[in-house]
Amino acid sequence: MGIAIMEKKQHSHSTFLFLLVFLTITRAQSHVPAVGDPGMKRDGLRVGFEGWNFCNEVGQEAPLMGSPRAADCFDLSVDCSKNLFLFSSLVIPDSGKLIHKVTEADNKLGVGQPFDGVGPQDINNTDIYAAKKELYLGSLCEVKDTPNPWQFWMIMLKNGNYDTMSGLCPQNGKKVPPFDSPGRFPCFGKGCMNQPILCHQQTQIKEGTMSGGFSGSYDLGFDCDDDGYDGLSYYEVIWEKKVSVGSWVFKHKLKTSKKYPWLMLYLRADATKGFSGGYHYDTRGMLKILPESPNFKVRFTLDIKLGGGAKSQFYLLDIGSCWKNNGTPCDGDVLSDVTRYSEMIINPETPAWCSPTGQRNCPPYHITPEDRKIYRNDTDNFPYSAYHYYCAPGNAKHLEHEVDTCDPYSNPQAQEIVQLLPHPIWGEYGYPTKKGDGWVGDARTWELEVGALSSRLYFYQVSKKKIKTQMQLFSCEIDN
Ligand SMILES: *[C@@H]1O[C@H](CO)[C@@H](O)[C@H](O)[C@H]1NC(C)=O
Ligand SMILES: *[C@@H]1O[C@H](CO)[C@@H](O)[C@H](O)[C@H]1NC(C)=O
């Protein structure tokens, strides 16, 4: 899952709002849905929540919030006696009952409290406890399907504050002692890496419409019953659907504050098992088939209502995956696993750092749809403005080109990031071709050839052997 950490975002009070409707991921050739609930049409919804600190762990739980993993999963049971049958044609039901799978007691489970699947050796470890709680919630939400069951969409919230004196984050997977680095990362002082206050409106049904949500703040004084949140950070995800009609709509809102200037909120479709990018534990998700480049595409509708200003990024789609520099799949060894991210930033205020004079910020070469390589020193032909930034894994030993290495602290393992900007060359894959495409006032349904595009992006690898790149998950990111 994509956490691109390379800019310091000191921008206060920026807000993002977006709506996402019917996400479908299909394997292009066979049109087999890879995602559970393609089109988000199923009345019974599955939503998970997770909070991450700067290096994708928990660190410390927020007071009274339990471990930052939660879920809202339910099935709809239609009460037939209340519906009309006219000449044996069924009138669409407008009522029913939601049968919830997860209780508030489950959601509040916190370190030290037992549940099915957490052993005594892990029960006091906040990081491992959260990973196990995700598996437990997944087991409550799981929907049987072929060829694999699936569990939930994942709402992921990340606090970009990093207290370098906390000793909490490894450096490219290696444990490092606390270090002093004033001003390099946002942090107001001790405790700045806290987990959020989580308020849950369990999904309800009213007059034929189901809706529910997660919301809250990183500011620990936040009160769920109080709707005044001036000056405090705020996040909100609301889901809504009419019974038997259309698709689920997800409405996201994110606001930073002085103390929390860098926040991220994603809606993710993760692999239903295995090591997702950015995470060294087994995860649960929606991808019952792991989409594999180049044969998959993603369809969704996006309507951005309000941007977050020049220093924020908005990812139309973020793909995260994990493989080692020798091409073998990740196995949880954080010293050799490498998380790979590729994302297109559609905030039109985001400039291309890659340029003829800033070649260091570009990938070594661009690959055309005809599979031709254009080196970045080919100033007549390289599409500089199609790339915002590239950085190489911090554990790469044979870099042939002068490039930045990615931030070593913000993921549990080394990471590699390729950031794209709208450009005519991406039109071939259904991606935005010019600044402003898909932005505020330009709501669209996208059908992205994600697999084809991702198979033509440069990623670092040592061996020349052809690697089957597995793209493990997607994220729409709000990164303030
Ligand atoms: C976990 O912490 C509790 C409370 O401090 C303690 O009683 C218990 O022995 C600990 N369990 C393990 C396995 O360390
Ligand atoms: C451009 O870069 C490629 C690959 O690094 C190198 O082989 C080539 O000599 C370079 N060309 C120029 C004109 O510097």
Automatic annotation (TrEMBL):
A Pfam family annotated for this UniProt entry: DUF7705
Family annotation (InterPro entries): DUF7705
UniProt KW keywords: Signal
Ranges for domain DUF7705: 34-466
Membrane-crossing residue ranges in chain numbering: none
Signal peptide positions on this chain: 1-28
Name this protein carries in UniProt: DUF7705 domain-containing protein
Organism this protein belongs to: Arachis hypogaea
Lineage: Eukaryota, Viridiplantae, Streptophyta, Embryophyta, Tracheophyta
